[in-house]
Each structure stands twice: as C-alpha cells, then as structure tokens.
Amino acid sequence: WPSNVYLKADPERATGFRLEFEGNSLPANTSGVHMDPDGFAGYDGYGVGSAIVAYFPNVDVSELTAEEDIVSSLDPASKTVLLEVTQDGTQRVPHWAEVDLQESDEAMRGFIIRPAVILKESTRYIVAMRGLNDTSGQPIAPSDAFAALRDGNAATYNALAPREEHFENIFTTLEDNGVPRDDLTLAWDFVTASSQALHGPALTMREDGLEALDAEGYEVVIDELNEFSEEQNAEIAFEVVGRYRVPHFMREVPVSDLMGWRFNTDDQGNIVQNDWVMAPFIARIPRSAIDGEPAGVVLYGHGLNGSMDQVRGGFNRAVGQRHNLIFVATDMWGMSTEDVPAILRLITDMGLFPALSERLVQGLFNHVALVRAARDHMASLPEFQERGVTIDTERVYYSGISQGGIFGASFIALSPDITLGHLGVPGQNYSTLLHRSVDFEPFLIPLEVFYPNSIDRLLVLGAVGTLWERADPVSYYRHISAEPFADTPPGAVLLASATGDYQVALVTNEITARSGLDVALMTDYGKEVPGIEPTAYPHTGSGVVNYTFGNPWPPVGNLPPSDDVGDPHGKPRNLRNHQDQMVHFWESGGEIIDVCGGDACTPE
C-alpha cells in the first residue's frame, strides 16, 4: 500500500488514472463487511501523505533509516528506496522505516516507510526494499510472485503476465538509479492524486457558495445576547450566540443506525448546492471595542471533536481585550461534538468514513462563509450598533488550537479573505498523527474490536487517510504560499508547538518544514532536525516555533508520548510572550520574532 494495482488508466482524469477498488479489495470488519470503495469516486491517485505499508514477518528495522537519521535514506546504499519519477527525471525522496509498535506480536508488525516530506500531487513514486533481514539475522526472501516478475518468469503465473511490462519499467528505473534488480526483496509504484481530485470539492463549495451568498445576501440571526459587568468579566463586554446562513452542499445518509452526511451530487457526480442551512456561531466582544476604535476580527478554530464554545477560553479573552480583537467561532462540522456519535458508529465499518471526511469539507467552507458574515455584516446588527462597536475590515485573522491548529492550515490555503493564521500545537496528516496521540486511544479500542488484524488496521488508516486529505492540511500546505489556489492570495502561518506534546506529533511539523513549501523551522527548536537548516529570527513568512516545558523528546515510533512532566499541549497558548508573538505576526503582516531570548522558548 499504496499500490498501482488499483490505478486504472483514465485519460479524462488529471493524472491519467482513476483509483478503483473492487468490492472486496479493502479490509473487512468482523462482520465480513469490506470497506465500501464508493468514497473514492473522483480520486485519481493516492494521498500525498500516504504511508507505505508492506508485511515481512519479524522484519528487523535496526539497520534501516530511522526517524532520527532521515538523511541516510538518500544514500545510494540505503536498503529502502523511494523515488520520485517525473518527465524531468528521478530523485530520491527522504523517508524513514519503522514497524507498527501498536502490535504487540513482533511477528505480526507491519512494515512502514514514512515519507519525510509531503509528497507532490499528480506524481509517480517507486518504492523498493533490498537486503532485508528478520530479527534472527536471516535474509528475507522475496515472495514467489515478486521473484517471478523480477527474474523474468512472470509467464509462469497467468495473473502476473499482464503486469510484466509495467514492472520491467520499474526495474529499469531502479537500475538506472543504482538499485540492481537482483538485490530487490520487493518493489512497486503508485501515483498521488491531483489537486483537482483532492481540493476540487472544497474549491467548488467556496466558489459556488460565496457566489450564492453574494447573490442572495447574508443572513445573521442573534439568538442570545450575554452582557457582563466588569466584576463578571473584566475583558469581555458582551457576547452573541446565533446563526448565519450558509449554502448547503450535503445530503443525509445512514451511518449505521444514525444519520450522517455526504456530498450532494448531480447525475454527473458534480457537487451542487442542496438548499441552505443555518450554522451556529459565537462572537465575543472585548471592552476595548465598546465606543472605541474599530475592532479586528479573529476566527477561532476549536479542539478535537469540540465546539465553538471553546472560543471562551481565557487566553482569547486576554488577547481580545489587549488588542481590540473580536473572536468569532463556529463548529467544525465533521469533527465537532455533535459528530461524535456518528464517528463512533463508523469505526464499526470504516467504509462509512466519507460521512466524516466529506462533511469536513462543508465545515471548512462554513468557516470561509463566517469570515464574510462577521467582517462585512456583523457590525450592522443592532446589538453592535447600540454599543458603538465597529469592524476594521483590514484586521481579520485566524487562530486555532489543536484540531483548530491542524485545520487552520487548510483554512488559510482556502480562504480568499484571511491570509495570516496562528496554528497552536498543530500537526498534519491524521493517518500519521493518530497512533502518536493519546487522543486516539479511546477510538483505537473499538477499532481493534472490529478490525482485529493489525495489518488490516494499517490499511484502513491508509485508505481513510486518502479520504481525509480533502480537508487534512497535509494536502493544503503546498497551497498556502508555494502554489496558491487560483484567485486566492498567498498566506502565512505561525506554527507553535510544544516539546513532547502528548496529543499532536511534532514530527509531522518537521515533515512540513522539510518539504520546501515555504514553512521555516525557526532556530532554538530544541533539537537538531535532520535535513532542515533552521531559520534565524526575525523571519517573514510561515514558520515553526517550539516551546519547551521540561518534557523530553519522545522516543521514535508510532506510539503516543508519556513522561513524568505531564502533557504540555495546552501550555503555549497561555504564555504572554507567545500571545505577543502571535499578535505581532498578525499585525506586522507575517513577521515571526523571537520572544524567548534564544533559549528554545523555555518558560521559567
């Protein structure tokens, strides 16, 4: 995985292929129900965050490229090879090898090659392994089928004969890159999806949805007004809780015994509007905005499976009052509190996963629409006019924490209105993040019940990871500034991580910084990161800053961290120096300054 065997020639697709799984190709749950391939309709390749999975009993990875020694994967003698293949030639791609430590039985641990960069869209990759040994020191032999392909004996297997020409190209390309075919234990290729396949749904919603709003008008309804005395709240004067009208691009579908949501499509498979829906929002207005200078607006992104209520956090109150900023928030449909029952149901049958991944795209668009509603229409509401609150339409920013920090990168790439975002304790690529997060443990238990084979679970995560990428930032970072979407201004993001984070793996931010997508790794990160030259402060543009609270760097592997210090995940947001760094980033147009005095941001 991922494999070319499921790529069928299709000249009408951007990559020249369509991703097509037959009915029983994908893993089955304990009821014998295979994952439904319907969710992959429209895909022309695999995700750009795809982990590469194979299985060799008792494989020994001690002599292979490790997470801490990524540069060695580019060595001509590396036992694992990942090649990017284009019309301009080939180049080796940095990566590391690991086994699935979630599996307690060493003989059953899946073998994983993780690209150490975000893969490119619409690109062919060849993967190869050679000289592998098992844990007893014995060489691992190729399978009989692969040996037949490698050695020119494919005709002995009727099913292999049609594949012989394709694999000859693989072997020739590898030999041209110093990898003799006789050395190979296994090799194959795959193609990544196009931007059209990954981002077409979100861009369609954005273009058609904003056009519909411009034509039909924005509607904002206030359901609840909460005013506070200074004794009740020294920073927030009042908040409004209400709803705003959004074009709806979803249709209801069953998710086990519940109802979920899928894209609403016409007979040609095009996503089309399905009436309108009123989405919820909260706006928190600081005292500094009352009868004062026009206030800026910050769109806030909430945490894992949470809700817009999290905008009420004290750190937001303090920033809002000090800098005259109104914080607004809505639920991230697809991964909000109200979605949790459906999420728990789809774990029993992961073929239902599009009910999460497709609804996330609507959730992203809802955030895009809320910005327009808040920036251009909120100040006209009586609740604002009566209190002398006006909006500075030039000061509109994004801030998200945890899940909001993750999807914030996707939002900034997609938004035509906000170009500067703060991503608190973020990451990317859920198929990599899940095993490395304590937050996944409650979901892993039922997943193990319904998919008891650990290899199946790796394939399930690979499959849903590709589906997730229509919203996951692993496919959007490229489009923030390196390759902005059409009619979208380039943006910049400030990523603020915490060493030893239990919930979001920092290694995924390192992958982002290594990918050549205009995301710098700032100096004083706290450790040397292979393949990345740190960037000195000050820096204008996207960058990763890291805060350290005494936690050690976690051991390598796909397990969540654990130490005696405690989870630092919630700490950076409460630091005044980080809050100042965030606001300076916004107000300066994207400059990242050192607020830590060159000590790796280690608070007293």
What do you see in this structure?
There is one protein chain. This protein has 604 residues and is of the alpha/beta class. 25% of the residues lie in helices and 23% in strands. It contains 13 helices and 23 strands. A ten-stranded mixed beta sheet has the order 10-11-14-16-15-17-18-19-22-20, sandwiched between helices. Helix 3 packs parallel to helix 6 and helix 6 packs across helix 8. It starts with 6 loop residues before the first strand and ends in a 12-residue tail after the last strand. The model has no long low-confidence stretch (mean pLDDT 96).
Counting DSSP H or I runs of 4 or more residues, the number of helices is: 13
The main β sheet shows up as:
10 strands, mixed
The coarse overall form would be globular
Report the uncertain regions. none
Structural class: alpha/beta
Secondary structure topology:
Layout: E1 7-9, E2 17-19, E3 52-54, E4 80-86, E5 89-92, E6 95-99, E7 111-115, E8 124-130, H1 144-150, H2 164-176, E9 184-191, H3 195-216, E10 220-227, E11 236-247, E12 250-255, E13 258-263, E14 276-286, E15 295-301, H4 314-323, E16 325-329, H5 340-346, H6 354-377, H7 382-385, E17 391-401, H8 403-414, E18 420-424, H9 430-433, H10 441-450, H11 454-468, E19 492-498, H12 507-514, E20 519-521, E21 539-540, E22 542-547, H13 576-587, E23 591-592
Parallel strand pairs: 15-16, 15-17, 17-18, 18-19, 19-22, 20-22
Antiparallel strand pairs: 1-2, 3-7, 4-5, 4-8, 6-7, 8-9, 10-11, 11-14, 12-13, 14-16, 21-23
Helix pairs in contact: 3-6, 6-8
